[in-house]
Input
Amino acid sequence: MIALAVSGCATSGGPQRVGRYAISEQYAAQSQDSRVQYIVLHYTETDFAKSLNILTRGPVSSHYLVDANPPRIYRLVPEDRRAWHAGKSYWQGQRGLNAASIGIEIVNDGNRGHLEGPFAPWDPAQIDAVVALVKDLAARHGVQPHHIVGHSDIAPQRKQDPGATFPWQQLVAAGLVPWPDAAQVAAAQTRFSGALPSVAWFQERLAAHGFEVPRSGELDDATRRVIISFQMKYRPARWDGEPDAETAAWLEVATTPGGLRLFRDGQWQVYQPQ
Output
């Protein structure tokens, strides 16, 4: 059973007031949506007690913390308030994602700060809790599937979480995130095996996918780190930062109209980001 620990606050039940003036909610604007446009997944890289201390008493925070054994979800910051979890960040033209996102920290050892791994495994029941939480948040706030991301997506120069072992496929199976069409990826890999695109092509496609990436045409360290972030998600068996044919195939399909699929209502559907 997944437990949800939520802190609440009492309300008077009457109309809100400013001084002697009552605030009327008689009218509502049609042009509005949720403050929450993104959901960002993290690992804590330490145990629950230390994670809780850092996230409640330190200079960083998250809206939710998900423990394991047994899985338990803790709300640490109300959803209508900003948590300090994303830091310097960028995704698909949006900077400073703290102001427009919900952060979910998941208790997991990660790679313990070792850039080359290995990454710790994940508890299946804990991931079930994460999927349930993400599904609820996405539904209530109308978060688009391509806006459910990892910390390494939005800050690839300094972050690797949730890491190469994170089971993105469970979020795919739940219809939460889109995935490149497998048949198109296989065909593209065969084609790229004969002629690999230039580094400039990789940089352009990574930018189209959503990353902030150099446009130098050179395979510099910053570009490698972005490639690693992409590989950890889509090709986690090898995430060496090398722009090879398989990576090119995943990247082309992920950034080509009609290349992404979303699993909904028991079948794959073409996904068109809005």
